[in-house]
């Protein structure tokens, strides 16, 4: 009888443990290797600067004087992809997107050289007096998204940022590899990225539109394409938080 009770309790313990064990498919490689573009070794840096409201105009002027010099300097293996002010969303905010051609070694090379650049050191000091806060993330680009290349304007840009549930990045990538096909008709897809350093399990989708009404029309049209609703249905449960910024490019931005 005692042996029977022990066996029963062991069975109950095993059943209870099974409730809290999540069955996952074994992965044989890092998410970054499975999802990122293999033909490039580019690393991206996304910067968010919250500017004192009274300093935004001076901040923009300062950036327009200094950032192109870094972008155009041949000895710096980096490029300014785009630079914007947020129009709708977080106010008095600047957003900068940089590409480092060569990955982490290129990033280290640029940072090392900038620490010796007296003009950039002065720029950072002056800029620091204008900021309330700042943060950045290092990103890789999804293999199935468009490469972000310069484009003519005028356009408005939407940066849609998704905080995913940990462990769902591969699932997200699998769904969006199909979903992106529904959003190519009007050339609105600019780039898609996922975080490596900074806030993790973050995804950023960058879109370009002629204006807000065009944005509304394009997004509504997607719902009339068979299959789009199903992909939205399956990706929404993967999201913890999401945010949309409508942004206006500065004059120096390659994305106009």
From TrEMBL:
Pfam (any one): NIPSNAP
GO cellular component, one term: mitochondrial matrix
Signal peptide from the UniProt entry: none
Domain NIPSNAP: start-end pairs: 157-254
Example of a GO biological process term: mitophagy
Compartment(s) where it occurs, according to its Swiss-Prot or TrEMBL record: Mitochondrion matrix
UniProt keyword terms in alphabetical order: Autophagy, Mitochondrion, Transit peptide
InterPro entries on file: Dimeric_a/b-barrel, NIPSNAP, NipSnap_domain
Superkingdom to which the source organism belongs: Eukaryota
Main location: mitochondrion
The family this protein is said to belong to: Belongs to the NipSnap family.
Record-given protein name: NIPS2 protein
